[in-house]
Amino acid sequence: METKPQIQKRNVAYKIWLSNLLNGNYVKTEGEFQSDYVEVDNLKISRINLIGTVVFRYESDDKNYLSITLDDGTFSIRLKTWQEDVKLLQNTNQGDLVLVVGKIRQYNEELYIIPEIVKILEDPDLELVRRLELLNEIGKPTKLQSEKIVEPTQNVEEEQIKDPKLIANRQKILELVESLSTEQGAKKDEVIEKSKMGEEAEQVLNDLLKDGEIYQPKPQYLKLLE
């Protein structure tokens, strides 16, 4: 009997106040097809749909890292991009009203967003519409607990940027998956062998699977998530 392909489906992108999200508990999962998530009440939130104003923008000198900080009126959160993905934030400027759909991640106790969709909103009334929507569906935002507040620092930015090995390894694996892919996908063992990274390649593959960059159409085969 032929095994049905296991395709990683996108999780729901929840609309929620940032303060409510940041009050939740971050859960790191172990399963290959499971995404890390923030537990808020009875929800497991791994993706978010957010409207906020850009209050800070940072771009590295080599143009390979770009982040912006969005504020929804209850608190702020950073969007982070690397390498080719910086184009998602390239046209944003401080003061812009932005809609973003992206994945929630955590580093050094700080929650941040890896954006998938970024759209600059020209109509400022859309922020009011979103606030009314959240008030109707969720209620007033909760007050952020002081122990949950993690202010991003320049040192955190520098640590992210100065890890070229991690960025290079991820890019190398993605390129191998793409170049070795047939109709079935790229053989996992072949990707690991050609990467010449040994056990480290396994870890990078697991991270890419969790981040939704690749998926397994069938056991031991990999494909880029389009």
Number of distinct beta strands: 12
How would you state the average pLDDT, rounded? 83
Proportion in helices: 25-40%
Overall shape: globular
Which regions contain 5 or more consecutive residues with pLDDT less than 50? 153-162
Distance between the termini: 28 Å
CATH architecture of the largest domain: Beta Barrel
Relative strand content: 25-35%
Radius of gyration: 19 Å
CATH C-level label of the largest domain = Mainly Beta
**Backbone structural class:** alpha+beta
CATH topology name of the largest domain: OB fold (Dihydrolipoamide Acetyltransferase, E2P)
The main pleated sheet reads as: 5 strands, mixed, barrel
CATH superfamily of the largest domain: Nucleic acid-binding proteins
- Spatial strand order of the main sheet: 5-6-7-9-8
Number of helices: 6
H/E topology pattern: EHEEEEEEEEHHHEHHEE
- The total number of structural domains is 2
